[in-house]
Design goal:
Strand content: 5-15%
Bound molecules: 4-O-methyl-alpha-D-glucopyranuronic acid
Strand order of the largest sheet: 7-8-9-10-11-12-13-14
Largest sheet: 8 strands, parallel, barrel
Helix content: 25-40%
Length: 713
């Protein structure tokens, strides 16, 4: 046993005020704030035993070293023994635990499943154990998190098993390094330099993901380029897979449905054609020769111009099954997206996925999982849960959330997405009566799914802080946490993230948490209050565009969705309208079928409401809308103001960056309010109620407002 020598003076220097570009994400391992805290953890961190040898063990060792360097500001040399009876932290797989520790853990170890882990304090020592190498890595990160958030180790007992098996990031990254709906620079995948150069950022990406339990990544855009399936790119993808493997992260690729035609000039991509089936089988064999643990395919078919089984009169199941059969012998899966809709189908766009997939329930191979966006439209600031959840008992469904904020202000708005995700996850589908929450569908408990999953469309790019807005990191973090356990408490998630990323000072953490927790409702108010949706600018979706109309596709306009006229506004989705409501269970039909019982959050999603209709608040619809837009603007200003009070509590670099983005947010909130109220005011013909500020410009100004080269298209 050795004792760490800490330079007391160094620990007292004003560390938090040093410049920090945010690259280290939540793995800052901030120095202990005083000698007492350092002394407390020193005994444990100075006496670590790590048993076993594997690439993942090396990752664990390295992570411990990085953490110790950070905590103690490099004043000690980490030394991690591979065997030492006196170690105070013991990290070992259950099979490698010595008798004493086995006895201390007792029956508990039997409760560890999959890549779960157990951390247990016993007689002055901490044991981190698991049944797999990756479980051990997760357990190590969990212990480090406890130290980062300055929790006491005595009496600790944490048993964690992942509730969802597939916890994936989806990158919409193109091979030319542009990122569809990416607002944080270019793609981090430098395909040109691969396979020979493994950038440090790939390793740090893997570390960050492993630290929150993410175990897979689909590295290419769902608007897929077939080239990624050629040897040239498979070699590169294999290099990424090799780099990620020790972190428990599998690689997945997006498959372009007509790849057999593009790459090998087959006359058809008909999934029932024998030649096509043979092509996919051969392709799978080839992929697995490069990447033996390749996860499988993610497919967007028959949607927004992507080819698919429709082109051959086949069903989504027939399409998915052909690819599934190809990867099955190697243990691969297919994630088949339910985001299927077509402008030529005359029904309400939000009904189309359900109409198409529901009749196919039970027709997919057992290695197919259908990936469904959280709501039936397209990642709007607020949508009711997708009606497919709870409606496909025989077909595993996984969740697709969008971490990148395509429709939510993109990179410059602070919105705590976990608040929105929690709202969806906690929704009761009533599929099997009360208590059939979306979570229960996803974790497999409601229908007995054999495959479970959650995917998040990544917000990561080459920006030094990875996500453009520093707080975008929180959304990445929260996604991982919710994918591991969708029941996680979002207050705890954001609190932990703030502590690990910035500071443990409650005078910083509490107000910052408060800003985050209020940010979602604020954004909904200044963008799409009362259930408005899809009123963003055309194509790039940045900023307001309630006037967007005409063009090639009605279902890509705003007027299709809000239907404002002199009398009313909103989309009637009840029996008297599109009857999208019929896709939900009777419980929801009762609530959402009547404007009087529909929560205001979804009023205009389900109903057409006259401008002068008196709402439960006592306001007319018009007044309520205007007041909510105003409330949103005031909320954004409040966020700005609250944040300004935190100056000096964290490093200036990140403080200033966030302040500057909050300025943008507050200005854009006004832009949203003014332009939407001017536009809708033409129809309502009613004056702005008291308390709502006068617009800064006239409607024409907003109609003429154009910006070139908005990123992410
Ligand atoms: C990758 C939305 C986005 C598209 C995206 C699509 C999808 O429509 O605007 O950029 O395409 O969703 O999820 O496939």
């Amino acid at each position: 046993m050795y004792r760490l020598v800490i330079s007391f003076l160094l620990l007292l220097s004003p560390v938090i005020l040093k410049a920090n570009d945010g690259y280290k994400l939540w793995l800052q391992y901030l120095p202990f704030e005083n000698k007492a805290v350092a002394d407390y953890y020193q005994d444990y961190l100075g006496n670590i035993t790590l048993v076993g040898k594997s690439p993942t063990h090396e990752v664990i060792r390295r992570e411990l070293e990085i953490a110790i360097e950070g905590f103690f500001k490099g004043t000690i040399t980490p030394s991690i023994a591979d065997h030492n009876e006196y170690g105070l932290i013991w990290i070992a797989k259950s099979e490698d635990l010595s008798g004493t520790f086995k006895a201390a853990i007792g029956e508990k170890s039997k409760e560890i499943k999959d890549d779960g882990y157990l951390i247990k304090y016993s007689q002055g020592k901490i044991v981190v154990t698991a049944n797999s190498d990756i479980g051990l890595l997760y357990g190590t990160f969990a212990l480090l998190k406890k130290i980062q958030t300055r929790e006491k180790l005595e009496g600790m007992e944490i048993l964690e098993n992942p509730k969802i098996q597939l916890r994936l990031l989806n990158h919409w990254d193109n091979l030319n390094r542009t990122v569809e709906r990416g607002y944080a620079g270019f793609s981090i995948w430098n395909w040109h330099r691969l396979p020979h150069h493994i950038d440090q950022q790939y390793i740090d990406y893997a570390r960050a993901n492993a630290s929150i339990g993410i175990n897979g990544t689909s590295v290419t855009n769902v608007n897929a380029n077939a080239l990624v399936l050629t040897p040239e790119y498979l070699e590169k993808a294999a290099a990424l897979a090799d780099a990620f493997r020790p972190y428990g992260i599998k690689i997945y690729l997006t498959a372009r449905f007509n790849a057999p035609m593009i790459l090998d000039s087959l006359p058809t991509a008909d999934p029932l054609d024998l030649q096509v089936q043979a092509w996919w089988k051969k392709k799978a064999e080839e992929i697995y020769s490069y990447i033996p643990d390749f996860g499988g395919f993610l497919v967007k078919a028959d949607s927004e111009g992507q080819p698919g089984p429709h082109n051959y009169g086949r069903t989504q199941a027939e399409g998915a099954n052909t690819l599934a059969d190809a990867v099955k012998p190697f243990g691969g899966i297919v994630m088949w997206r339910a985001f299927v809709y077509n402008e030529k189908t005359p029904t309400d766009r939000i009904k189309q996925a359900y109409d198409e997939f529901k009749p196919l329930d039970g027709k997919f191979r057992d290695n197919v999982i259908v990936q469904v966006k959280n709501g039936p439209l397209d990642f709007q600031p607020r949508e009711p849960f997708h009606p497919l959840f709870g409606s496909m008992p025989e077909t595993p469904l996984m969740m697709e959330f969008q971490i990148t904020k395509e429709y939510l202000g993109q990179e410059s708005h602070w919105v705590n997405l976990a608040t929105m995700w929690e709202e969806v996850l906690q929704s009761d589908t009533y599929a099997k009566g009360v208590g059939s929450k979306v979570i229960n569908v996803l974790d497999g408990s409601l229908h007995g799914y054999k495959l479970t999953g959650m995917a998040g469309v990544s917000n990561i790019g080459t920006d030094r802080n990875w996500t453009g807005h520093h707080t975008g990191q929180a959304d990445w973090y929260a996604f991982g946490k919710l994918a591991w356990n969708p029941e996680s408490h979002i207050e705890e998630i954001i609190g932990d993230w703030l502590k690990m990323t910035y500071s443990n000072d409650p005078d910083f953490v509490n107000p910052a948490k408060n800003i985050a927790l209020n940010s979602y409702e604020t954004l909904v108010n200044y963008m799409t209050p009362l259930g408005l949706h899809h009123i963003m600018a055309r194509s790039h979706h940045w900023g307001p565009g309630p006037w967007v109309t005409g063009g090639g596709r009605d279902d890509w306009t705003a007027t299709y969705y809000h239907k404002a006229d002199k009398k009313a506004i909103g989309f009637d989705r009840t029996e008297s309208g599109s009857n999208a409501l019929a896709q939900y269970t009777p419980e929801w039909k009762n609530v959402w079928g009547d404007p009087e019982t529909t929560p205001m959050a979804f009023l205009l999603w389900f109903h057409r409401v006259s401008w002068d209709k008196k709402l439960s608040t006592g306001n007319s619809l018009w007044d309520e809308m205007a007041l909510r837009y105003q409330q949103g603007v005031e909320g954004a200003r409040w966020m700005q103001n609250e944040w300004s009070k935190l100056e000096g509590k964290i490093d200036t670099e990140r403080f200033t960056h966030i302040s500057s983005f909050l300025n943008i947010q507050a200005t854009e909130a006004e832009w949203w309010r003014d332009s939407c109220l001017l536009y809708f005011g033409q129809f309502s013909g009613m004056p702005l109620p008291k308390g709502v500020e006068k617009p800064k410009h006239d409607l024409q100004y907003y109609l003429n407002f154009k910006r070139n080269f908005v990123p992410g298209i």
